[in-house]
Amino acid sequence: MAIIKVSTSIFSAIKTIERAMTKAKRGDEIHLASGQYKESIQFHETVAMKGKNNRDTIIEGLFIVPEHTTITFEQLTIIPTAQFFIEGRAVFKNCLFQGAQTNVILSVSNGEVELEDCTIEQAKDVGLALFNKSEATITNCLFNGNGKSHLLLENSHLTIENSELTDAVHSMWLKDEATIKSVGNHIHHHSGTQIVVQERSAWIDSSSTLSHGKGNGVYATGESTVTLLGSYMHHQQLPQIWMQESELHAKNCTIEDGEESAIMLREHASAEIVKCTIGNHKIANVQATKESRLNIESSQLHSCEGVGVQLREKSIANFLDTTFKDHVLSQLFITEQSIASIKGCKFTDGKQVGILMEKGSSCTIADSSLAGHQNTAITVMEGELTALDCELAYNDGNGILAVTNAKVQVEGCRMYENEMPHIAGKANASITIHQTEFYKGKSLYIIDQSTLTASDCKIHQSDGVQIEISDQTEANLTRCAISNGKTNGFKVLRNSHLELNDCQISNHALPQIVLNDSSLTMKNSELLNGERNGLIVENNSEAYIQDSFITKHIFPQIWIDLASSVELKDTQLTEGAESDIYVQNKSSLHASNCIIRNDRFQYNVQAVNYSNITLEDTLVENSFGKIFYSENNSVITHSLDEVND
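Above: the chain's sequence. Below: its structure in C-alpha coordinate form.
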Protein backbone atom coordinates (compact mmCIF):
# COMPACT_ATOMS: atom_id res chain seq x y z
CA MET A 1 0.00 0.00 0.00
CA ALA A 2 1.35 3.40 -1.01
CA ILE A 3 0.44 6.77 0.46
CA ILE A 4 -0.02 9.56 -2.04
CA LYS A 5 -0.01 13.06 -0.59
CA VAL A 6 -1.93 15.87 -2.21
CA SER A 7 -1.61 19.56 -1.34
CA THR A 8 -2.56 22.83 -2.94
CA SER A 9 0.80 24.25 -1.85
CA ILE A 10 3.08 25.52 -4.64
CA PHE A 11 5.75 23.21 -3.27
CA SER A 12 3.60 20.09 -3.68
CA ALA A 13 4.34 17.69 -6.49
CA ILE A 14 0.70 16.57 -6.61
CA LYS A 15 -1.81 19.39 -6.32
CA THR A 16 -5.04 17.70 -7.52
CA ILE A 17 -7.00 14.61 -6.66
CA GLU A 18 -7.26 13.74 -10.33
CA ARG A 19 -3.44 13.73 -10.60
CA ALA A 20 -3.24 11.50 -7.53
CA MET A 21 -5.73 9.05 -9.03
CA THR A 22 -3.55 8.63 -12.12
CA LYS A 23 -0.74 7.45 -9.87
CA ALA A 24 -2.82 5.41 -7.45
CA LYS A 25 -3.02 1.66 -7.49
CA ARG A 26 -5.50 -0.66 -5.86
CA GLY A 27 -5.36 -0.31 -2.07
CA ASP A 28 -3.38 2.95 -2.02
CA GLU A 29 -4.26 5.87 0.27
CA ILE A 30 -4.53 9.45 -0.92
CA HIS A 31 -3.89 11.95 1.89
CA LEU A 32 -5.26 15.43 1.29
CA ALA A 33 -3.68 18.35 3.07
CA SER A 34 -5.90 21.13 4.40
CA GLY A 35 -7.42 23.20 1.67
CA GLN A 36 -10.21 23.28 -0.89
CA TYR A 37 -10.10 21.05 -3.95
CA LYS A 38 -12.48 22.00 -6.74
CA GLU A 39 -12.52 19.34 -9.40
CA SER A 40 -14.77 16.71 -10.96
CA ILE A 41 -13.59 13.14 -10.69
CA GLN A 42 -14.63 9.72 -11.89
CA PHE A 43 -12.81 7.35 -9.62
CA HIS A 44 -11.40 4.33 -11.45
CA GLU A 45 -9.39 2.54 -8.79
CA THR A 46 -10.13 1.14 -5.33
CA VAL A 47 -8.40 3.59 -3.00
CA ALA A 48 -8.86 5.47 0.28
CA MET A 49 -8.95 9.25 0.45
CA LYS A 50 -8.26 10.95 3.79
CA GLY A 51 -8.30 14.56 4.87
CA LYS A 52 -6.63 16.20 7.84
CA ASN A 53 -10.05 16.97 9.34
CA ASN A 54 -13.50 17.43 7.91
CA ARG A 55 -13.59 21.18 8.48
CA ASP A 56 -10.33 22.15 6.82
CA THR A 57 -10.20 19.64 3.96
CA ILE A 58 -12.87 20.36 1.36
CA ILE A 59 -13.57 18.71 -1.96
CA GLU A 60 -16.06 20.32 -4.32
CA GLY A 61 -17.28 19.15 -7.70
CA LEU A 62 -18.89 16.29 -9.57
CA PHE A 63 -17.93 12.85 -8.27
CA ILE A 64 -18.63 9.39 -9.70
CA VAL A 65 -17.81 5.98 -8.23
CA PRO A 66 -18.32 3.48 -11.07
CA GLU A 67 -19.06 -0.23 -10.88
CA HIS A 68 -16.43 -2.59 -9.45
CA THR A 69 -14.74 0.30 -7.64
CA THR A 70 -14.48 0.91 -3.89
CA ILE A 71 -13.57 4.35 -2.56
CA THR A 72 -13.15 5.23 1.13
CA PHE A 73 -13.46 8.87 2.19
CA GLU A 74 -12.36 10.02 5.65
CA GLN A 75 -12.36 13.37 7.42
CA LEU A 76 -13.52 15.42 4.44
CA THR A 77 -16.04 18.12 3.71
CA ILE A 78 -17.73 17.14 0.47
CA ILE A 79 -19.64 19.73 -1.57
CA PRO A 80 -21.16 18.11 -4.65
CA THR A 81 -21.98 20.52 -7.46
CA ALA A 82 -24.22 17.76 -8.80
CA GLN A 83 -25.27 14.54 -7.14
CA PHE A 84 -22.43 12.34 -5.94
CA PHE A 85 -23.16 9.29 -8.11
CA ILE A 86 -22.25 5.80 -6.91
CA GLU A 87 -22.55 2.57 -8.88
CA GLY A 88 -19.73 0.80 -7.08
CA ARG A 89 -18.99 0.94 -3.35
CA ALA A 90 -18.28 4.07 -1.32
CA VAL A 91 -17.35 4.32 2.35
CA PHE A 92 -17.57 7.64 4.18
CA LYS A 93 -16.13 8.14 7.67
CA ASN A 94 -16.30 11.37 9.62
CA CYS A 95 -17.30 13.36 6.55
CA LEU A 96 -19.41 16.48 6.22
CA PHE A 97 -21.68 16.73 3.18
CA GLN A 98 -22.98 20.16 2.23
CA GLY A 99 -25.61 20.02 -0.47
CA ALA A 100 -26.66 23.58 -1.12
CA GLN A 101 -25.56 23.34 -4.77
CA THR A 102 -27.38 20.11 -5.65
CA ASN A 103 -30.82 18.54 -5.44
CA VAL A 104 -29.44 15.18 -4.26
CA ILE A 105 -26.19 14.81 -2.33
CA LEU A 106 -25.58 11.07 -2.70
CA SER A 107 -27.24 9.01 -5.43
CA VAL A 108 -26.63 5.26 -5.48
CA SER A 109 -27.76 2.97 -8.30
CA ASN A 110 -27.10 -0.75 -7.89
CA GLY A 111 -24.25 0.28 -5.65
CA GLU A 112 -23.29 0.21 -1.99
CA VAL A 113 -22.54 2.99 0.45
CA GLU A 114 -21.43 3.12 4.08
CA LEU A 115 -21.67 6.24 6.22
CA GLU A 116 -20.12 6.47 9.68
CA ASP A 117 -19.93 9.58 11.89
CA CYS A 118 -21.02 11.77 8.99
CA THR A 119 -23.20 14.85 8.60
CA ILE A 120 -25.39 15.20 5.51
CA GLU A 121 -27.11 18.56 5.27
CA GLN A 122 -28.73 21.24 3.15
CA ALA A 123 -29.60 19.27 0.00
CA LYS A 124 -32.32 20.97 -1.99
CA ASP A 125 -34.29 17.72 -2.22
CA VAL A 126 -32.66 14.52 -0.89
CA GLY A 127 -29.66 13.72 1.27
CA LEU A 128 -29.17 10.08 0.19
CA ALA A 129 -31.06 8.37 -2.63
CA LEU A 130 -30.82 4.62 -3.25
CA PHE A 131 -32.15 3.02 -6.44
CA ASN A 132 -32.06 -0.26 -8.29
CA LYS A 133 -31.21 -2.75 -5.52
CA SER A 134 -28.64 -0.57 -3.81
CA GLU A 135 -27.43 -1.15 -0.25
CA ALA A 136 -26.46 1.29 2.47
CA THR A 137 -25.27 1.21 6.07
CA ILE A 138 -25.42 4.35 8.20
CA THR A 139 -23.99 4.65 11.72
CA ASN A 140 -23.79 7.66 14.08
CA CYS A 141 -24.72 10.19 11.42
CA LEU A 142 -26.64 13.47 11.33
CA PHE A 143 -29.07 14.33 8.54
CA ASN A 144 -30.16 17.95 8.80
CA GLY A 145 -32.04 20.38 6.59
CA ASN A 146 -32.30 18.27 3.44
CA GLY A 147 -35.31 19.74 1.63
CA LYS A 148 -37.80 16.99 0.78
CA SER A 149 -36.32 13.89 2.41
CA HIS A 150 -33.10 12.84 4.08
CA LEU A 151 -33.35 9.30 2.70
CA LEU A 152 -35.10 8.13 -0.46
CA LEU A 153 -35.12 4.42 -1.32
CA GLU A 154 -36.53 2.61 -4.35
CA ASN A 155 -36.09 -1.16 -4.51
CA SER A 156 -33.09 -0.91 -2.18
CA HIS A 157 -32.00 -1.81 1.33
CA LEU A 158 -30.60 0.38 4.10
CA THR A 159 -29.56 -0.08 7.73
CA ILE A 160 -29.29 3.03 9.90
CA GLU A 161 -28.17 3.06 13.54
CA ASN A 162 -27.73 5.64 16.29
CA SER A 163 -28.30 8.56 13.96
CA GLU A 164 -30.27 11.80 14.06
CA LEU A 165 -32.55 13.02 11.29
CA THR A 166 -34.23 16.41 11.52
CA ASP A 167 -35.53 19.46 9.68
CA ALA A 168 -36.86 18.27 6.32
CA VAL A 169 -40.28 17.55 4.87
CA HIS A 170 -39.73 13.81 5.35
CA SER A 171 -37.07 11.83 7.13
CA MET A 172 -37.25 8.58 5.14
CA TRP A 173 -39.20 7.71 2.01
CA LEU A 174 -39.40 4.08 0.86
CA LYS A 175 -40.81 2.91 -2.49
CA ASP A 176 -40.93 -0.18 -4.68
CA GLU A 177 -40.10 -2.96 -2.19
CA ALA A 178 -37.46 -0.97 -0.35
CA THR A 179 -36.36 -1.93 3.18
CA ILE A 180 -34.93 0.14 6.02
CA LYS A 181 -33.69 -1.33 9.29
CA SER A 182 -33.56 1.44 11.86
CA VAL A 183 -31.91 1.03 15.27
CA GLY A 184 -31.67 3.59 18.06
CA ASN A 185 -32.24 6.67 15.92
CA HIS A 186 -33.68 10.07 16.80
CA ILE A 187 -36.10 11.31 14.15
CA HIS A 188 -37.75 14.64 14.85
CA HIS A 189 -39.11 17.99 13.70
CA HIS A 190 -40.12 17.31 10.12
CA SER A 191 -42.71 19.46 8.39
CA GLY A 192 -44.49 16.49 6.82
CA THR A 193 -44.80 12.79 7.54
CA GLN A 194 -41.54 11.62 9.05
CA ILE A 195 -41.47 8.08 7.60
CA VAL A 196 -43.24 7.27 4.30
CA VAL A 197 -43.45 3.58 3.35
CA GLN A 198 -45.03 2.70 -0.01
CA GLU A 199 -45.33 -0.02 -2.65
CA ARG A 200 -44.66 -3.20 -0.63
CA SER A 201 -41.76 -1.66 1.24
CA ALA A 202 -40.72 -2.40 4.83
CA TRP A 203 -39.57 -0.15 7.67
CA ILE A 204 -38.20 -2.09 10.63
CA ASP A 205 -37.29 -0.10 13.71
CA SER A 206 -35.80 -0.94 17.07
CA SER A 207 -35.48 1.51 19.97
CA SER A 208 -35.78 4.71 17.94
CA THR A 209 -37.57 7.92 18.90
CA LEU A 210 -39.89 9.75 16.48
CA SER A 211 -41.17 13.07 17.73
CA HIS A 212 -42.55 16.49 16.87
CA GLY A 213 -43.61 15.85 13.29
CA LYS A 214 -46.15 18.14 11.70
CA GLY A 215 -47.59 15.22 9.76
CA ASN A 216 -47.69 11.53 10.61
CA GLY A 217 -44.87 9.79 12.38
CA VAL A 218 -45.14 6.81 10.00
CA TYR A 219 -47.35 6.54 6.92
CA ALA A 220 -47.55 3.17 5.15
CA THR A 221 -49.57 2.24 2.09
CA GLY A 222 -49.63 -0.21 -0.78
CA GLU A 223 -49.15 -3.54 1.04
CA SER A 224 -46.16 -2.30 3.01
CA THR A 225 -44.94 -3.44 6.43
CA VAL A 226 -43.90 -1.47 9.50
CA THR A 227 -42.24 -3.26 12.42
CA LEU A 228 -41.54 -1.45 15.70
CA LEU A 229 -39.57 -2.95 18.60
CA GLY A 230 -39.15 -0.73 21.64
CA SER A 231 -39.83 2.42 19.62
CA TYR A 232 -40.96 5.68 21.20
CA MET A 233 -43.27 8.03 19.31
CA HIS A 234 -44.71 11.31 20.55
CA HIS A 235 -46.02 14.74 19.59
CA GLN A 236 -47.06 14.25 15.94
CA GLN A 237 -49.65 16.66 14.54
CA LEU A 238 -51.45 13.94 12.55
CA PRO A 239 -51.99 10.27 13.50
CA GLN A 240 -48.63 9.04 14.70
CA ILE A 241 -48.92 5.82 12.68
CA TRP A 242 -51.13 5.68 9.58
CA MET A 243 -51.50 2.27 7.94
CA GLN A 244 -53.42 1.87 4.68
CA GLU A 245 -53.56 -1.55 3.00
CA SER A 246 -50.45 -2.37 5.04
CA GLU A 247 -49.26 -4.24 8.14
CA LEU A 248 -48.02 -2.95 11.48
CA HIS A 249 -46.18 -5.03 14.07
CA ALA A 250 -45.37 -3.22 17.32
CA LYS A 251 -43.88 -4.64 20.52
CA ASN A 252 -42.68 -2.94 23.71
CA CYS A 253 -43.40 0.49 22.23
CA THR A 254 -44.65 3.74 23.73
CA ILE A 255 -46.86 6.01 21.62
CA GLU A 256 -48.16 9.10 23.38
CA ASP A 257 -48.99 12.81 23.33
CA GLY A 258 -50.28 13.07 19.75
CA GLU A 259 -52.54 15.81 18.46
CA GLU A 260 -54.88 13.28 16.80
CA SER A 261 -54.53 9.49 17.07
CA ALA A 262 -51.73 7.09 17.91
CA ILE A 263 -52.61 4.51 15.24
CA MET A 264 -54.93 4.75 12.24
CA LEU A 265 -55.74 1.62 10.22
CA ARG A 266 -57.63 2.02 6.92
CA GLU A 267 -58.62 -0.07 3.92
CA HIS A 268 -57.72 -3.63 4.91
CA ALA A 269 -54.78 -2.59 7.04
CA SER A 270 -53.71 -4.77 9.96
CA ALA A 271 -51.86 -4.24 13.23
CA GLU A 272 -50.32 -6.58 15.81
CA ILE A 273 -49.60 -4.64 19.02
CA VAL A 274 -47.95 -6.40 21.96
CA LYS A 275 -46.78 -4.99 25.31
CA CYS A 276 -47.22 -1.39 24.21
CA THR A 277 -48.30 1.75 26.06
CA ILE A 278 -50.51 4.13 24.09
CA GLY A 279 -51.98 7.28 25.60
CA ASN A 280 -52.68 11.00 25.73
CA HIS A 281 -54.14 11.61 22.28
CA LYS A 282 -56.89 14.06 21.41
CA ILE A 283 -59.12 12.08 19.04
CA ALA A 284 -58.44 8.38 19.62
CA ASN A 285 -55.62 6.17 20.75
CA VAL A 286 -56.31 3.60 18.02
CA GLN A 287 -58.69 3.71 15.04
CA ALA A 288 -59.45 0.84 12.66
CA THR A 289 -61.73 1.43 9.70
CA LYS A 290 -62.67 0.07 6.27
CA GLU A 291 -62.31 -3.66 7.01
CA SER A 292 -59.04 -3.41 8.89
CA ARG A 293 -57.71 -5.96 11.41
CA LEU A 294 -56.35 -5.18 14.86
CA ASN A 295 -54.79 -7.37 17.54
CA ILE A 296 -53.66 -5.87 20.86
CA GLU A 297 -52.09 -7.98 23.61
CA SER A 298 -50.66 -7.18 27.05
CA SER A 299 -50.84 -3.45 26.43
CA GLN A 300 -52.07 -0.28 28.14
CA LEU A 301 -54.36 2.24 26.45
CA HIS A 302 -55.00 5.34 28.52
CA SER A 303 -55.87 9.01 28.86
CA CYS A 304 -57.28 9.97 25.47
CA GLU A 305 -59.42 13.10 25.21
CA GLY A 306 -61.59 11.16 22.77
CA VAL A 307 -62.07 7.42 22.24
CA GLY A 308 -59.69 4.74 23.43
CA VAL A 309 -60.12 2.39 20.44
CA GLN A 310 -62.56 2.91 17.58
CA LEU A 311 -63.61 0.15 15.17
CA ARG A 312 -65.60 1.15 12.08
CA GLU A 313 -66.77 -0.17 8.72
CA LYS A 314 -66.53 -3.95 9.21
CA SER A 315 -63.21 -3.91 10.99
CA ILE A 316 -62.23 -6.77 13.31
CA ALA A 317 -60.23 -6.54 16.53
CA ASN A 318 -58.92 -8.88 19.20
CA PHE A 319 -57.85 -7.68 22.66
CA LEU A 320 -55.99 -9.88 25.14
CA ASP A 321 -54.72 -8.98 28.64
CA THR A 322 -54.97 -5.27 27.89
CA THR A 323 -55.95 -2.32 30.10
CA PHE A 324 -58.23 0.53 28.95
CA LYS A 325 -58.11 3.47 31.35
CA ASP A 326 -59.05 7.13 31.75
CA HIS A 327 -60.57 7.89 28.34
CA VAL A 328 -62.87 10.90 28.12
CA LEU A 329 -65.23 9.27 25.60
CA SER A 330 -65.86 5.55 25.10
CA GLN A 331 -62.91 3.36 26.00
CA LEU A 332 -63.86 1.03 23.13
CA PHE A 333 -66.25 2.10 20.35
CA ILE A 334 -67.49 -0.56 17.91
CA THR A 335 -69.72 0.49 15.01
CA GLU A 336 -70.80 -0.23 11.43
CA GLN A 337 -70.78 -4.05 11.54
CA SER A 338 -67.38 -4.28 13.18
CA ILE A 339 -66.41 -7.18 15.45
CA ALA A 340 -64.41 -7.28 18.68
CA SER A 341 -63.15 -10.20 20.75
CA ILE A 342 -61.92 -9.39 24.27
CA LYS A 343 -60.30 -11.67 26.84
CA GLY A 344 -58.55 -10.98 30.12
CA CYS A 345 -58.88 -7.21 29.74
CA LYS A 346 -59.50 -4.45 32.27
CA PHE A 347 -61.65 -1.38 31.57
CA THR A 348 -61.42 1.16 34.36
CA ASP A 349 -61.95 4.81 35.29
CA GLY A 350 -63.61 5.89 32.04
CA LYS A 351 -65.17 9.34 31.93
CA GLN A 352 -68.06 7.99 29.85
CA VAL A 353 -68.91 4.48 28.60
CA GLY A 354 -66.58 1.52 28.84
CA ILE A 355 -67.65 -0.23 25.63
CA LEU A 356 -70.10 1.32 23.14
CA MET A 357 -71.55 -0.83 20.36
CA GLU A 358 -73.90 0.19 17.57
CA LYS A 359 -75.03 -0.31 13.98
CA GLY A 360 -74.81 -4.06 13.60
CA SER A 361 -71.54 -4.51 15.45
CA SER A 362 -70.77 -7.46 17.72
CA CYS A 363 -68.51 -8.11 20.68
CA THR A 364 -67.51 -11.14 22.73
CA ILE A 365 -65.87 -10.34 26.07
CA ALA A 366 -64.53 -12.98 28.46
CA ASP A 367 -62.64 -13.07 31.76
CA SER A 368 -62.59 -9.28 31.89
CA SER A 369 -63.59 -6.49 34.28
CA LEU A 370 -65.30 -3.14 33.74
CA ALA A 371 -65.33 -0.79 36.72
CA GLY A 372 -65.31 2.85 37.70
CA HIS A 373 -66.99 4.38 34.64
CA GLN A 374 -68.93 7.61 35.00
CA ASN A 375 -71.55 6.19 32.66
CA THR A 376 -72.55 2.68 31.61
CA ALA A 377 -69.94 -0.07 31.50
CA ILE A 378 -71.28 -1.51 28.21
CA THR A 379 -73.87 0.04 25.89
CA VAL A 380 -75.30 -1.98 22.98
CA MET A 381 -77.46 -0.36 20.27
CA GLU A 382 -78.45 -2.51 17.29
CA GLY A 383 -75.56 -4.82 18.08
CA GLU A 384 -74.76 -8.19 19.65
CA LEU A 385 -72.86 -8.71 22.90
CA THR A 386 -71.68 -11.93 24.53
CA ALA A 387 -70.17 -11.57 28.02
CA LEU A 388 -68.55 -14.61 29.67
CA ASP A 389 -67.08 -14.78 33.18
CA CYS A 390 -66.80 -11.01 33.51
CA GLU A 391 -67.12 -8.61 36.43
CA LEU A 392 -68.99 -5.31 36.06
CA ALA A 393 -68.98 -3.14 39.18
CA TYR A 394 -68.81 0.37 40.61
CA ASN A 395 -70.04 2.09 37.45
CA ASP A 396 -72.13 5.26 37.72
CA GLY A 397 -74.49 3.98 35.03
CA ASN A 398 -75.67 0.49 34.13
CA GLY A 399 -73.51 -2.57 33.94
CA ILE A 400 -75.01 -3.31 30.52
CA LEU A 401 -77.48 -1.11 28.61
CA ALA A 402 -79.11 -2.82 25.62
CA VAL A 403 -81.37 -0.75 23.36
CA THR A 404 -82.89 -0.73 19.88
CA ASN A 405 -82.90 -4.36 18.78
CA ALA A 406 -79.76 -5.20 20.73
CA LYS A 407 -78.98 -8.83 21.56
CA VAL A 408 -77.11 -9.62 24.77
CA GLN A 409 -75.93 -12.95 26.16
CA VAL A 410 -74.39 -13.06 29.64
CA GLU A 411 -72.93 -16.16 31.29
CA GLY A 412 -70.89 -16.71 34.43
CA CYS A 413 -70.64 -13.00 35.27
CA ARG A 414 -70.82 -10.94 38.46
CA MET A 415 -72.45 -7.51 38.58
CA TYR A 416 -72.62 -5.38 41.70
CA GLU A 417 -72.43 -1.83 43.06
CA ASN A 418 -73.55 -0.18 39.82
CA GLU A 419 -75.54 3.02 40.39
CA MET A 420 -78.18 2.11 37.79
CA PRO A 421 -79.66 -1.33 36.98
CA HIS A 422 -76.95 -3.88 36.35
CA ILE A 423 -78.66 -4.77 33.08
CA ALA A 424 -81.17 -2.48 31.39
CA GLY A 425 -82.91 -3.33 28.13
CA LYS A 426 -85.39 -1.39 26.04
CA ALA A 427 -86.70 -0.90 22.52
CA ASN A 428 -86.97 -4.55 21.48
CA ALA A 429 -83.78 -5.68 23.20
CA SER A 430 -83.17 -9.40 23.67
CA ILE A 431 -81.28 -10.44 26.81
CA THR A 432 -80.22 -13.97 27.79
CA ILE A 433 -78.50 -14.61 31.13
CA HIS A 434 -77.05 -17.84 32.55
CA GLN A 435 -75.24 -18.62 35.82
CA THR A 436 -74.74 -14.97 36.70
CA GLU A 437 -74.84 -13.21 40.06
CA PHE A 438 -76.33 -9.74 40.64
CA TYR A 439 -76.24 -7.90 43.95
CA LYS A 440 -76.05 -4.48 45.61
CA GLY A 441 -77.91 -2.40 43.07
CA LYS A 442 -81.10 -2.55 41.02
CA SER A 443 -80.47 -5.73 39.11
CA LEU A 444 -82.57 -5.92 35.92
CA TYR A 445 -84.74 -3.29 34.22
CA ILE A 446 -86.24 -4.51 30.93
CA ILE A 447 -88.88 -2.48 29.09
CA ASP A 448 -90.44 -1.55 25.76
CA GLN A 449 -91.20 -4.81 23.92
CA SER A 450 -87.98 -6.48 25.00
CA THR A 451 -87.33 -10.07 26.10
CA LEU A 452 -85.41 -11.51 29.05
CA THR A 453 -84.39 -15.14 29.47
CA ALA A 454 -82.49 -16.09 32.63
CA SER A 455 -81.41 -19.43 34.06
CA ASP A 456 -79.43 -20.55 37.11
CA CYS A 457 -78.89 -16.98 38.29
CA LYS A 458 -78.61 -15.50 41.76
CA ILE A 459 -80.08 -12.03 42.33
CA HIS A 460 -79.91 -10.52 45.79
CA GLN A 461 -79.38 -7.50 48.04
CA SER A 462 -80.67 -4.93 45.57
CA ASP A 463 -81.28 -1.40 46.77
CA GLY A 464 -84.25 -1.02 44.42
CA VAL A 465 -86.58 -3.40 42.62
CA GLN A 466 -84.55 -6.48 41.77
CA ILE A 467 -86.25 -7.16 38.42
CA GLU A 468 -88.62 -4.77 36.67
CA ILE A 469 -90.22 -5.47 33.30
CA SER A 470 -92.61 -3.11 31.57
CA ASP A 471 -94.31 -2.08 28.33
CA GLN A 472 -95.08 -5.36 26.53
CA THR A 473 -91.92 -7.06 27.68
CA GLU A 474 -91.56 -10.80 28.27
CA ALA A 475 -89.32 -12.42 30.89
CA ASN A 476 -88.64 -16.10 31.48
CA LEU A 477 -86.62 -17.20 34.52
CA THR A 478 -85.60 -20.80 35.25
CA ARG A 479 -83.84 -22.09 38.38
CA CYS A 480 -83.13 -18.58 39.62
CA ALA A 481 -82.94 -17.34 43.23
CA ILE A 482 -84.12 -13.78 43.92
CA SER A 483 -83.69 -12.76 47.54
CA ASN A 484 -83.05 -10.11 50.19
CA GLY A 485 -84.13 -7.05 48.26
CA LYS A 486 -84.80 -3.74 49.97
CA THR A 487 -87.99 -3.21 47.93
CA ASN A 488 -89.76 -5.61 45.52
CA GLY A 489 -88.44 -8.77 43.96
CA PHE A 490 -90.38 -8.25 40.71
CA LYS A 491 -92.46 -5.51 39.16
CA VAL A 492 -94.32 -6.51 36.01
CA LEU A 493 -96.07 -3.54 34.42
CA ARG A 494 -98.04 -2.40 31.39
CA ASN A 495 -99.02 -5.50 29.45
CA SER A 496 -95.87 -7.49 30.17
CA HIS A 497 -95.48 -11.19 30.98
CA LEU A 498 -93.31 -12.97 33.55
CA GLU A 499 -92.71 -16.72 33.58
CA LEU A 500 -91.00 -18.42 36.53
CA ASN A 501 -89.90 -22.06 36.50
CA ASP A 502 -88.15 -23.74 39.44
CA CYS A 503 -87.37 -20.36 41.00
CA GLN A 504 -87.20 -19.16 44.59
CA ILE A 505 -88.20 -15.62 45.57
CA SER A 506 -87.66 -14.68 49.20
CA ASN A 507 -87.04 -12.04 51.85
CA HIS A 508 -88.10 -8.77 50.25
CA ALA A 509 -89.07 -5.67 52.20
CA LEU A 510 -91.98 -4.84 49.86
CA PRO A 511 -94.35 -7.20 47.99
CA GLN A 512 -92.21 -9.86 46.37
CA ILE A 513 -94.03 -9.87 43.02
CA VAL A 514 -96.23 -7.04 41.74
CA LEU A 515 -98.32 -7.48 38.57
CA ASN A 516 -100.00 -4.41 37.11
CA ASP A 517 -101.86 -4.74 33.80
CA SER A 518 -99.67 -7.78 33.12
CA SER A 519 -99.52 -11.57 33.45
CA LEU A 520 -97.57 -14.21 35.35
CA THR A 521 -96.95 -17.91 34.85
CA MET A 522 -95.25 -19.54 37.85
CA LYS A 523 -94.44 -23.26 38.03
CA ASN A 524 -92.51 -25.39 40.52
CA SER A 525 -91.41 -22.27 42.36
CA GLU A 526 -91.23 -20.96 45.92
CA LEU A 527 -92.40 -17.60 47.22
CA LEU A 528 -91.46 -17.21 50.87
CA ASN A 529 -90.48 -15.03 53.82
CA GLY A 530 -91.71 -11.67 52.56
CA GLU A 531 -92.12 -8.64 54.82
CA ARG A 532 -95.25 -7.62 52.88
CA ASN A 533 -97.28 -9.61 50.33
CA GLY A 534 -96.03 -12.55 48.36
CA LEU A 535 -97.89 -11.63 45.17
CA ILE A 536 -99.97 -8.59 44.20
CA VAL A 537 -102.10 -8.99 41.07
CA GLU A 538 -103.87 -5.77 40.10
CA ASN A 539 -105.33 -3.67 37.32
CA ASN A 540 -106.57 -6.29 34.83
CA SER A 541 -103.67 -8.64 35.48
CA GLU A 542 -103.64 -12.44 35.25
CA ALA A 543 -101.60 -15.09 37.02
CA TYR A 544 -101.29 -18.85 36.59
CA ILE A 545 -99.52 -20.66 39.44
CA GLN A 546 -98.86 -24.40 39.44
CA ASP A 547 -96.91 -26.82 41.65
CA SER A 548 -95.60 -23.99 43.77
CA PHE A 549 -95.15 -23.15 47.46
CA ILE A 550 -96.08 -19.79 49.02
CA THR A 551 -95.40 -19.18 52.69
CA LYS A 552 -94.56 -16.82 55.55
CA HIS A 553 -95.65 -13.37 54.39
CA ILE A 554 -96.64 -10.60 56.79
CA PHE A 555 -99.47 -9.24 54.60
CA PRO A 556 -101.93 -11.35 52.54
CA GLN A 557 -99.85 -13.83 50.58
CA ILE A 558 -101.82 -13.34 47.36
CA TRP A 559 -103.60 -10.00 46.87
CA ILE A 560 -105.85 -9.70 43.80
CA ASP A 561 -107.34 -6.32 42.91
CA LEU A 562 -108.98 -4.23 40.17
CA ALA A 563 -110.53 -6.76 37.77
CA SER A 564 -107.65 -9.20 37.96
CA SER A 565 -107.64 -13.00 38.07
CA VAL A 566 -105.50 -15.84 39.40
CA GLU A 567 -105.51 -19.56 38.62
CA LEU A 568 -103.94 -21.78 41.32
CA LYS A 569 -103.22 -25.44 40.63
CA ASP A 570 -101.46 -28.00 42.83
CA THR A 571 -100.08 -25.20 44.98
CA GLN A 572 -99.64 -24.85 48.75
CA LEU A 573 -100.07 -21.66 50.81
CA THR A 574 -99.09 -21.83 54.49
CA GLU A 575 -98.06 -19.83 57.54
CA GLY A 576 -99.25 -16.44 56.44
CA ALA A 577 -99.40 -13.74 59.12
CA GLU A 578 -102.67 -12.49 57.56
CA SER A 579 -104.95 -13.95 54.90
CA ASP A 580 -103.53 -16.35 52.38
CA ILE A 581 -105.77 -15.03 49.62
CA TYR A 582 -107.44 -11.62 49.43
CA VAL A 583 -109.57 -10.81 46.37
CA GLN A 584 -111.33 -7.48 45.81
CA ASN A 585 -112.81 -5.05 43.28
CA LYS A 586 -114.30 -7.32 40.60
CA SER A 587 -111.43 -9.78 40.71
CA SER A 588 -111.41 -13.58 40.79
CA LEU A 589 -109.44 -16.63 41.86
CA HIS A 590 -109.82 -20.26 40.88
CA ALA A 591 -107.93 -22.91 42.84
CA SER A 592 -107.78 -26.65 42.23
CA ASN A 593 -105.91 -29.38 44.08
CA CYS A 594 -104.39 -26.85 46.43
CA ILE A 595 -103.68 -26.69 50.17
CA ILE A 596 -104.37 -23.44 52.00
CA ARG A 597 -103.39 -23.70 55.66
CA ASN A 598 -103.19 -20.88 58.23
CA ASP A 599 -102.76 -21.22 62.00
CA ARG A 600 -102.05 -17.53 62.66
CA PHE A 601 -104.98 -15.57 61.20
CA GLN A 602 -108.64 -16.27 60.67
CA TYR A 603 -110.15 -15.91 57.24
CA ASN A 604 -107.62 -17.69 55.08
CA VAL A 605 -109.62 -16.71 52.03
CA GLN A 606 -111.40 -13.35 51.58
CA ALA A 607 -113.46 -11.90 48.74
CA VAL A 608 -114.88 -8.36 48.76
CA ASN A 609 -116.57 -5.91 46.41
CA TYR A 610 -118.00 -7.95 43.52
CA SER A 611 -115.29 -10.56 43.54
CA ASN A 612 -115.41 -14.32 43.06
CA ILE A 613 -113.41 -17.24 44.47
CA THR A 614 -113.84 -20.85 43.34
CA LEU A 615 -112.13 -23.70 45.19
CA GLU A 616 -112.09 -27.20 43.68
CA ASP A 617 -110.48 -30.23 45.31
CA THR A 618 -108.74 -27.80 47.60
CA LEU A 619 -108.04 -28.21 51.31
CA VAL A 620 -108.48 -25.08 53.43
CA GLU A 621 -107.49 -25.26 57.13
CA ASN A 622 -107.42 -22.74 59.94
CA SER A 623 -107.09 -23.69 63.62
CA PHE A 624 -107.36 -20.06 64.67
CA GLY A 625 -110.83 -19.15 63.43
CA LYS A 626 -113.08 -18.97 60.42
CA ILE A 627 -111.60 -19.63 57.03
CA PHE A 628 -113.81 -17.62 54.63
CA TYR A 629 -114.94 -14.04 54.54
CA SER A 630 -116.95 -12.33 51.79
CA GLU A 631 -118.89 -9.09 51.52
CA ASN A 632 -120.45 -6.64 49.07
CA ASN A 633 -121.75 -9.01 46.39
CA SER A 634 -118.76 -11.30 46.49
CA VAL A 635 -118.94 -15.11 46.33
CA ILE A 636 -116.73 -17.92 47.60
CA THR A 637 -117.64 -21.30 46.09
CA HIS A 638 -116.26 -24.49 47.62
CA SER A 639 -117.03 -28.12 48.47
CA LEU A 640 -117.71 -28.62 52.19
CA ASP A 641 -115.71 -31.85 52.43
CA GLU A 642 -112.64 -29.93 51.31
CA VAL A 643 -112.96 -27.35 54.06
CA ASN A 644 -111.94 -27.73 57.70
CA ASP A 645 -113.41 -25.08 60.01
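Residues 641-645 have pLDDT under 50 and may be disordered.
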